[in-house]
Amino acid sequence: xxxxxxxxxxxxxSQHQNGLWKDYIINVVYDRYALDGLSYTIQxxxxxxxxxxxxxxxxxxxxxxxxxxxxxxxxxEGSCKNCKGQAEAQVLSCAQVTLTIHxxxxxxxxxxxxxxxxxxxxxxxxxxxxxxxxxxxxVSEEGFKRKFSKLQISVLRGTGRIKPGNAQSAGSVSSLHxxxxxxxxxxxxxxxxxxxxxxxxxxxxxxxxNKSAVQPLPTRLPQxxxxxxxxxxxxxxx
Length: 238
Fold this sequence. Notes:
Elements: E1 20-30, E2 40-46, E3 62-68, H1 81-88, E4 93-98, H2 100-110, H3 116-126, E5 127-133, H4 141-147, E6 152-162, E7 175-182, H5 184-187
Antiparallel strand pairs: 1-4, 1-6, 2-3, 2-5, 6-7
């Protein structure tokens, strides 16, 4: 991804930082066993009527998903011992969905001044999600409240840059990402959205842990919770 005249101002860290861009991701902490081990998908969408805080769940607004592969544990017959143990221990999983490319395509048309603030206001207004069961049934609002109380969705803003010495090959390049901070105002008040009182100040960076060491995620947040309780391990990419 290049930061040139083709990149809207809203995705540039500053005018003096060439080769860098603002990188947005959705961070998802979820319970694989929320539906008693049945598979389900969390689908994400951006886009809706101008000036309204609502989202149209249509194909052209789709930006990505997290798929939770099922592991039945409610019965002894045919159940996975490991899955049953994880469910009883309330082990959570973590996944991420990238947003930057989708924003790049939308900013020019839907953020009039192409500003940094406009990008995040657009996310606040129009980013939403739904849970779809295996077979295509959308989980109802009531079903969501009963089954998905552990789900936590947040948006992070970081800085992306091309990896030093990396040459473009086959139309793609490797990139590095750092200085991630949560944006709780984007998801606050939405079902499963990160609460304002559960996130650090926006000036406090999100500190990822060693990705080479796969560790279980915490089963619950302590009273003085910090966002970095969710390490970037156990990542699942759609």
